[in-house]
Amino acid sequence: NAGVTQTPKFRILKIGQSMTLQCTQDMNHNYMYWYRQDPGMGLKLIYYSVGAGITDKGEVPNGYNVSRSTTEDFPLRLELAAPSQTSVYFCASSSLQGLTYEQYFGPGTRLTVT
Amino acid sequence: GDSVTQMEGPVTLSEEAFLTINCTYTATGYPSLFWYVQYPGEGLQLLLKATKADDKGSNKGFEATYRKETTSFHLEKGSVQVSDSAVYFCALSMDTGRRALTFGSGTRLQVQP
Fold first, then answer.
1. Are A6 and A35 in contact (CB under 8 A)?
2. Closest residue of chain A to B5, computed from CA coordinates
3. Mean pLDDT, 10 residues at a time, over chain A (114 residues)?
4. Distance between alpha carbon A49 and the CA centroid of its chain, in Å?
5. Could you count the other beta carbons within 10 Å of the beta carbon of residue B52?
6. Who's near A34: CB < 8 A, 6+ residues apart?
7. pLDDT of A7-20, one tens digit each?
8. Which of A8, A36, A47, A97 has its CA 20 to 30 A from that of A108?
């Protein structure tokens, strides 16, 4: 099991460019999430998905889009990148472990917008 | 909405010192509580969890007890090591709906030899 994988690890974008952050999990989890981590802060939820074809907004969705065509993949799209989107992005998936759902995180993508 | 408040860091300790990192939460309903650890340049790893009042989560010498009366989930370790230097996040989730995590802002721990 590779767990949750993310690509790329690092990326520098110019203002106004677009890109897709890739996330794949091989654990057959239905729930998947995108979080962003700003310096010195906790993680904030951008989007989530409860299964293939079903996505919904989190706390900070503006400037992002997602899709979930398969159970394994949950890409995050940035359109018209802005400096405020400079952050570290984490993808996660979750499954029931005992009495509660546990989340498994990918290694993150560090994005800089200049 | 739900929220988590952690003590601010950094926390600097000498090796073998006792560690406490305070965490309190606000939630409607009965959340599950978690501590995650993030080592430099890495993603988050689950350290321990508790799912109901008075549960104690433990792992690698770390412990935390779910206190419903004080809405707290403080992290403790009796004797820290240099290898424990990391950022520690307290988090909660509800076991219905989106099941997403709500995080505190994190506490950086630095352990000196």
1. no
2. A42
3. 91 97 95 92 93 94 96 96 96 86 92 96
4. 10
5. 13
6. A21, A23, A45, A46, A47, A48, A58, A64, A66, A74, A76, A89, A90, A91, A92
7. 999 999 999 999 99
8. A97
